[in-house]
Structures are given as C-alpha cells and as structure tokens.
Amino acid sequence: MKKILLGAALISAVAMGSAQAHFQLLYTPEVMLDAPAEIDLKLVFGHPMENGHVMDMGEPEAFNVFFKGKSKDLLSTLKPITWKGPHNDAKAYEASYKVKRNGDYIFTFTPAPYLEEGEGVYIQQITKSFVNKAGLPTGWNEPVGLVTEIVPLNKPYQNYVGGTFTGQVLSEGKPAAGVECEIEYINPLVEMDANAFGKEAGPKPATAMVAITDANGMFTFGIPRAGNWGFACLGSGPAKEFNGKELSQDAVLWINATEFK
Amino acid sequence: MKLLGIAAVLGFAVASTSAFAHTPLCSCYDNGDGTVLCEGGFSDGSSASGVGVLVMDANGNTLLEGKMSEDSEFEFDKPDGDYKVVFDAGPGHAVEINGSDIVE
Predict the structure, then answer these.
(1) How far apart are CA A117 and CA A112, in angstroms?
(2) How close, in Å, is residue B79 to chain A by CA atoms?
(3) Can you give the pTM of this predicted structure?
(4) A136 vs B: CB within 8 A
(5) Could you list the residue range(s) of the whole structural domain that residue B27 is in?
(6) What is the pLDDT of residues A8-33, one digit of tens each?
(7) Which of A42, A133, A186, B36 is the most exposed place for a label (fewest CB within 10 A)?
(8) What is the pLDDT of residues A78-93, one digit of tens each?
(9) Tens-digit pLDDT profile for residues A160-196
(10) Min CA distance, B2 vs chain A (Å)?
C-alpha cells in the first residue's frame, strides 16, 4: 500500500513538473490609459502560474516600442533589478516609458537564449505586450515583423472573462501550423515597488494548459479568470540551434482580461 | 457672422456622417510653448481628418475654429483665461475638453 502511494506521489510530481511553463514577463499594471502617463515595465523570467522559481533572465538583445507603424529602440532604457520570487531571487530588468499620444503601443522584447540546464536546451522567448491610450486603435492587430510573433485577433488589452481570445502565430511572417502554445496566468500579485511576486497564488491547473495552432497558425482560448494571461508558442521561430544545443525560439504574447461589469 | 459659424458647424457634421456609428475620441496636450495640440479619432480607428474643432471661451464665445488635419491633429495658440475645446463630429458626437484638463 505504501509503495502504491509512493508511486502515485511520484507520478503527480512528474505531472506537476510538466505544468511548470517558463514565461518571459513584459509586465505593466495599467494597460488602458486615459491620460498621458509614465508607465513602469518589469521584465522577469519565471513560472508565474505556479508561482515557482524565478530564473536569471537572458541578457536583453532587443527592446522596442511600436507606435503607429514606427519602431523606437528602448534597449538603453533597461535597468537591471533583482526580482524576488516566492522561493528565490533572480536577475530581471525594468524600464519606464512615457505614453502621451493616443493609440496602441506594442512593446517587444528579445532576450539572449537562456540555457535550461535540466533539459540541456536553450529557450528564447520573444515577447509582446500592449498598452492603449484613450481607446484609439492604431494597429494592435498588425504584425511588427519579429522573426516569430503572435498576432492578436482580439484587442489584447481588453478581454473579458467568459470571452475568447484568438491569436495567429507567425514564423518569419508566415502562419505557423501545428505549434504547441502553452497558456499561462500571472497567479501571484506583482508587487511593482518591491520587485517581487506575492507569496499567495490562486488556483492552478493539474498540467500545463495548451492550445495547438491550426493550419492557419491560429489558436483560440476561452478566458476563465480576470488578470494577465500569456501564450508561449514553443519553437515557432526559425532558429533551432544555439551554441551547439537545441534552441526553442518561442513567440510570447500577454493579454489582459477583466470581469464584464 | 454667427450664422456663418453655425453653417460651418452643420457642414462639419455632414462631412463626418460616415463616423456616426463610432465613438469620437479627442485628446489635447499643452505643448508648453504657448500652443495646444489636439488629436482626434474614432474608436474603430477611422481618421478624424476634416472634423471640425472649436475653441471657446468661458462664456461660450467661439475664439477659434478649424478642422482636424490630414493626421487628425489641430494645433492652436493657447488662449488667455479659461477655455474649452469642442471636437465636433456631429450631433451626439461632440467631445468637450476643458482647458484646465489640458496639461503638459
């Protein structure tokens, strides 16, 4: 009996492991602004659904904001910080950006590949997040030309619990079919001033939440809870190797959802 | 003169008929150099080019009137004293912004 129980414990431990998805955060708390504001962005690499370990992020390679089709290089505005996870600390970055004019601001971030030693593979998550000023849409649904990216088909900054979100995964501008997209949620409170995740976290799924892209590179997700949902479409990028090891070049996108009330 | 002004407003309303189904949006910024910049648009992303803009004093007298540019922008010299900006995209589609809310 004890042996069987131990076996069950091991199985559940394995299942738990598979639910720990790596996610690059590109986080700012207010994504729909009415008035000009200086916004703070936090760039953290961790397991936000599980509220698990945080990792030392890969060095930033590119950090841009796209506004009305024009790109602005923000790489030099990144400042290194130490992020406090519930169990450990890790190297992360922060930046601030002045939003003034009305429209869609698309922030994009590319870190250097991160060596996941347990699996012997590199992970590079090319990440997009959105901020809108004054409700004027100016291109949130347009690709910005990353080697791989998720193009939203619903406004990424305005989703509702009970609704759905659809994205299209592109690799070098072309739809990427059959890609596994892991779905993540920022479960703990993000403490902006303390550069920390809160200790408490809400419910988590038994295994990783996943959607597979169809022939047109599309996936759809029904939103069960208010907050920040992320999608990491694994290995959707064209680069497959780095430093002689396998590379998973992923497209990541973050959306916001609220209760419709 | 007043009649002409009203006619002009009506004209603008007609010009922006195609935007009636959408929510008008307008924001203004004090440029800090004695000028004010307003940008307009509609919630569906359509342009506000040609939409009428009025700048009024505290008593509702029109100080300035013009149209949103090709880039849906309108720039003007900041009036002395209290003022408001009216982005006039037709009946039920006007946005009023008080000068006191227009900051750098």
Answers:
(1) 15
(2) 22
(3) 0.87
(4) yes
(5) 2-101
(6) 444 444 444 445 689 999 999 999 99
(7) A42
(8) 999 999 999 999 999 9
(9) 999 999 999 999 999 999 999 999 999 999 999 999 9
(10) 33
Tell me if B43 and A135 make a contact (CB, 8 A cut-off): yes
pLDDT in tens, B12-50: 444 444 444 589 999 999 999 999 999 999 999 999 999
The total number of residues written for chain B in this structure: 104
Average pLDDT over residues A1-8: 47
Number of domains into which chain B is organized = 1
Helices marked H in chain A: 2-18
The whole-number pLDDT of residue B7 equals 43
Q: Which two tokens stand for residue A69?
A: 């089709």
Number of helices followed by number of strands (H, E) in chain A: 1, 23
Contact across the interface for A134 and B25, Cβ inside 8 Å: yes
A134 touches chain B (CB under 8 A): yes
In degrees rounded to 5, what are phi and psi of residue B99?
A: -55, -30
**Alpha carbon separation from B25 to A82, A156, A197, A232, B35 (Å, rounded):** 40, 20, 36, 34, 20
- Residue A135's closest chain B neighbor by CA? B43
What is the Cα–Cα distance from B1 to B18, expressed in whole angstroms? 28
Please check the confidence at residue A95 and state whether its pLDDT lies above 50: yes
Indicate the residue of B23, B27, B44 with minimum beta-carbon distance to A102: B27
> Which residue of chain A comes nearest to B24, CA vs CA?
A136
- ipTM for the complex? 0.77
- Exposed, middle or buried: residue A199 (CB in 10 Å: 0-12, 13-18, 19+)? exposed
Q: Which of A38, A101, A136 is most worth mutating to test chain B (most B CB atoms within 10 A of its CB)?
A: A136
The verdict on a CB contact (< 8 Å) between B43 and A100 is no
Closest CA of chain A from B40, distance in Å: 9
The shortest C-alpha distance from B102 to chain A (Å) reads 10
Is the Cβ of A142 closer than 8 Å to some Cβ of chain B?
no
